[in-house]
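Fold these two proteins, one after the other.
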Amino acid sequence: VSVQYIMAAVNDTKFNSAVFLLTGIPGQEDVHLWISIPFCLMYVISIIGNSVILFIIKTDPTLHEPMYVFLSMLAVTDLGLLIATIPTILGIYLFNSREISFNACFTQLFFIHSLQCIESSILLLMAFDRFIAICNALRNASILTLPRIAKMGLVCVLRGIAVIFPLPLLLKWFHYCGANVLSHSYCVHQEVMKLACSDITVNNIYGLHISLLMMGLDSLFIFLSYVMIFKTVLSVVSQTKCLRALNTCVSHLCVVLLFYTSEMVLSVIHRFGNSSTYLLQILLGYVYLLVPPLMNPVMYSMKSKHLRSRIIRLFVK
């Protein structure tokens, strides 16, 4: 199916060697307009959800606590991911616009990957916040002050930019030949790299190190944080306090599992998948990029009573 779609895309488009061709869902070109409806709904709900979270946290002084400040950082990152992917994803399904210039593609993949790295760092900070709040509650306010949180956020941003910045620069030096057809409706490093006619060893090794050293280490430290949290919680005599402490971690755990599981599965399929996993790769790509920004506001507002009541009051008025 993928080979037929690639040939059709090349034949149907006035091919320009300075552009890549993006892919929707192969074999479903006739219903792309209908497929655009759920994508539009997901984008609208995600943008509204994250914007509401940001608005409530900014306007309610009682929510100016570490947990909610980190949540607002997560919402900003999710909005960035949505903005980075909207033009190409909706462009394909609404206007059948498959072409993307090299520079636009490299810019998009830079934002997608750097924002993913930033999100991973923020999830680690949120785990650290839960660890301090539960295991060292008396010093929580003195350790996680707002200026210190701002510095942590800046480090997350600089870390994501510094690590990803070499990727588009390396890709820009490659020579591209052949069909130049990507298997997603947006640009990612793993896909663009495969289209190069040059030696991609450096990109391959560097990309693998990013996955292992950044995502791998972040998820490992999150895991260790929760080991310490559960150890502390289980030593609490009161069952009510134990459950209350665990309840504050549930939403974060769900977000972490959703983010890292989809990222890990997609990375494995990109590196070791074949033509039989082509459709799965496309669908998982959408899950990886679009589901976390959609679900994060839902999961946090469901588990935070204060946040939930403020959202209800905002819309009931």
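Now the second one:
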Amino acid sequence: VQGLRRSSAPPPGLTEQRRSVPIAAGRRSLTPSTCIPRAAISPSLCACAGSTTMAGEAERRKRAAVVVLGDIGRSPRMQYHSLSLASQAGMEVDIVANGGSDPHLSLRENPSIHIHEMKSVQLSGVSKISGALALLLKAAIQFIMLIWFLCFKIPRPDVFIVQNPPSVPALAAVKVVSWLRGAKFIVDWHNFGYTLLGLSHGRSNVIVKIYFWFEKHFGRMADGAFCVTKAMQHELSQNWGIKATVLYDHSPEFFHPASLTEKYELFCRLGTSICSAMGSADCISVEKEVEDKSTTVLTSKIDGGVFFKPNRPALVMSSTSWTPDEDFSILLEAALMYDRRVAATLGEEDSMDEGQLWIDIKSGKQFDYPRLLFIITGKGPDRKKYEEQIKRLKLRRVAFRTMWLASEDYPLLLGSADLGVSLHTSSSGLDLPMKVVDMFGCGLPVCAASFSW
């Protein structure tokens, strides 16, 4: 699979053939992601929001408010919008979002970007309230918080750009404030909120049907709309009556193939996390001591120079929110198949002691079949479940690590990998996995569950 390298203009179209790559017997296949056309985002944004003119020194500088009813550190597309508006369109940008994870350093240090953090609404103390009433109470509190921040905490913007989903109550709150403050109201459609709610409640549930009406009604009240794929654009146009512009993501400059020095420095920082096995010892944890700074799992530093280790493992990278729309059992089954296939090819028995293999790895022996190191980043509800499954696999030549990275380290880890994996299966079947765009930015080939672009 050919990864898409960064360019100043999007490719003319999709020119590569899709080829199914079975990753687990009897299960869904992964399909190498073809090249997705990508475009700088500022021209389309500026068409709706406007930008400072050449004669505009005496004119008030244009201002945009980017609204995310969620963790801005886990909303890369909205971070890219903010960077584009500030750096390319010359606008002041106010980000109103929940706290949690730090956004990228380039946002935090940009003098034109101002981040306003709202507290996340937790209803842990009202467990006796029914599910529907709890959702209603949470939405009411969030609505009041949004109105307060958008009306009184930020200067009047020329345009509000709100991420969808979540739809409730974000779309209604931003619509009300845009009317009160005389600003444009733009929705950036990443997915459909009612389909995500339907994963846990079922599409026929009355709450999901009300959510669908709310999302459609207030979505149609926007002054403009962006979406992530042509398939979503068609759905919005044909069934929702919304005319949206497809805005493909262009990964920022900090997504690039990592140099050997960057790889060495990154894995020195991640030393403890990488060298600590999930459960008993594995083919990565037995290789070196954490305190040894002359080598990492991928590189060695010799006489001031950094070199790849001859017996380094292949690094496979994935990121996830650990939710039901990503079935990581597929990847675990594929890892087990690889481990068993190599053992069978080399004539090893299942009962064989790993001791000699650990000694060979530690001594630097090169193998015909590489070890595989899977690093999976992200936070989410299903993380512990899959970590327990990984511990029970008893793999010899495959190791897994799960972690949460600083926003500056995530692009470097992608740029250090040999292969990217995306197991995202959309609740709507229409959204675009952002991780694939970031992987392409790092020149990384990607195996992904098939999706419509």
